[in-house]
Amino acid sequence: MKPRCIWLDCDTGTDDAAAILCAAALPELKLAGLSSVAGNVEGRKTYLNTLRICRLMGRTYPVYAGAAQPLAVPYTPAYGFHGENGLGGVELPLPEHCDAPELPAWEAIYRCAVAQGGELELITTGPMTNAAMALLLHPDLPQYLKRILVMGGSATGGNRTPAAEFNVYADPHAAQTVFTSGVPVVMCGLDVTEQATVTPAQLSALAACGGTVAQTLCRLLATRPDHQRGAVMLHDVVPVLYAARPGLFEGRKAWVRVETKGAITRGKTVTDLYSDKKYPEKNALVLLGVDRSGFARLFFRLILSLDGICTDEACLDQIERGALT
Ligand code: RIB
Ligand code: CA
Q1: How many domains does the chain have?
Q2: Substitution candidate for ligand 1 out of 85, 123, 130, 235 with most atoms within 8 A of CB
């Protein structure tokens, strides 16, 4: 079957790095382009980090720089989780050519969507500013996007505030633009991404089996506070793996809107999972569950494939057990 075309827009931090690697490794997907946005760290840093991850896996993709500021709220970084360089303080080499194309990310996304004739699937793993800019500047874009898969939001609580998940909190107006665009949305919120975890022991076993890609990614993930807490949440990997292997997940269609004005609820994705028909329009598929073992084993296999290592079930069993020998 012909690989499906995706575009990955990220605020390359440590789990974005994992998402980029998985998107490159999945045979079901063709990575048409990458773009960066201010989020975990400033926009220039996320652009260069995206280039660093492409260099790490020895692949070249079109990479475009996007928004440095949210649409309507002040920019707020997440140094506490991803470090000031976005990669947990780990220094990775840059490719030879690092200048960003003149064309901004939102224009590149639009042109790619038109060129793909409506087959492009847009995946966002950071604040949705670039996606929103493309939608606002090009009212015909919805006819050229098959769907938008977002890591963001939550049908329940938040991680940036009690009400809001970071990517939506960072640019709530952009998220609202995406959810009300008319393009089908797959919401990969904290409800599912906090289940999509790997343990430090599994990552050590993955590094022991792998080469440069696996070992470097595990170094990045080991810098995260959730690694210290014993379960690394691979938030950004979820929309990528859902795009290729939806059978690993379960979810329900629901009406979703974003709170953009609330003093304490800004960035809340108000999710009507128990409809009393007040909100008949179900604009999003909200993911709520994942086959945790299947997710982790696929993740291990994809990362090792980038080191040219084919893994059999016995090897995956060993990594899943967190066994080093
Ligand atoms: O809330 C998790 C999200 O915020 C992830 O995309 C992570 O990279 C951070 O951007
Ligand atoms: Ca991210």
Answers
A1: 1
A2: 235
In a domain, 278, yes or no: yes
Q: Is 235 a catalytic residue?
A: yes
- pLDDT (tens digit per residue) in 213-235: 999 999 999 999 999 999 999 99
Angle at CA of residue 186, ends 181 and 192, nearest 5°: 140
- What domain range is 278 assigned to? 4-196+234-290
287, 189 in Cβ contact below 8 A? yes
> Is the pTM of the predicted complex or chain greater than 0.90?
yes
Which CATH number fits the domain that encloses residue 164? 3.90.245.10
297 lies in some domain: no
The rounded Å distance from CA 136 to ligand 2 centre is 22
Given a contact cutoff of 8 angstroms between Cβ atoms, the answer to whether 82 and 14 are in contact is yes
- Specify the pLDDT at position 1: 85
Ligand 1 atom showing the smallest separation from residue 127 Cα: 10
In a domain, 321, yes or no: no
The rounded distance, in Å, linking the Cα atoms of 39 and 68 is 8
User: In angstroms, rounded to a whole number, what is the distance separating the alpha carbons of residues 34 and 85?
Assistant: 19
